[in-house]
Amino acid sequence: MPSEFEKMLSGQHYNPFDAELMALRKNARQLTEQLNQISMSEIPKRTRLIKSLFGSTGKHIYIESNFRCDYGVNIHVGENFYANFDCVILDVAEVRIGDNCLMAPQVGIYTPGHPLDRKERVSGLEFGLPVTIGDDCWIGGHAVINPGVTLGDNVVVASGAVVTKSFGDNVVIGGNPARVMKQIS
Ligand SMILES: CC(=O)SCCNC(=O)CCNC(=O)[C@H](O)C(C)(C)COP(=O)(O)OP(=O)(O)OC[C@H]1O[C@@H](n2cnc3c(N)ncnc32)[C@H](O)[C@@H]1OP(=O)(O)O
């Protein structure tokens, strides 16, 4: 029988109050609390902590405080990842981000969902859908990336966008719901 962690990662409904999941979330809370208190002058210390929190990273990574996530272990970022102030990544499913990606302030990447069925939702069950972002992307301030979205390479997301669907390479997308604003090369 699959564990609640396995169900969570495979997009099935799972119980977030499972002991293993609660312990993993507690660990992530403690690490992010520590990260957010480390001075920006202590870059190697911040980098070490992020590497111990995330599933995988490139060599160069910088994340401003405050940063928040659910589990950390389900976040995989490439080389030269940068996230500005107040980034929130809710990683109940995998979040995979390529190389050379920039997050502006207050970007939200959300993988969790709650059932629309009232009884199921009240029961506490949740589900997650992965988010994938390609190489060389720039996500503008206050943009929200919804569960299940895949963005290609060289995608610019305008500030304030709510991205509800997937988009391919070389586009600027924006608005709510996000649409292609223009092609870029
Ligand atoms: C690490 C960090 O990133 S920190 C930096 C934080 N900065 C940001 O978050 C800024 C993000 N930048 C944006 O959102 C920009 O507007 C961009 C990159 C999406 C577009 O830039 P440009 O192509 O130069 O757009 P430009 O200013 O010429 O506007 C083109 C049209 O898009 C509209 N537009 C511009 N920004 C947005 C937006 N965020 N949402 C919706 N529409 C927008 C403009 O109103 C204009 O509309 P019009 O043609 O009807 O007049």
TrEMBL record:
The reply on keyword Isomerase is: no
Extract the Pfam families matched here: Hexapep_2, Mac
Transmembrane regions listed in the UniProt entry: none
Enzyme class at the top of the EC tree: transferase
Q: What organism is listed for this UniProt entry?
A: Neiella litorisoli
**Any one GO MF annotation of this record:** galactoside O-acetyltransferase activity
| SUPFAM superfamilies on file | Trimeric LpxA-like enzymes
* InterPro entries recorded: Hexapep, LacA-like, Mac_dom, Trimer_LpxA-like_sf
Q: Which SMART domains match?
A: Mac
EC number(s): the record gives 2.3.1.-
Q: What is this protein called?
A: Acetyltransferase
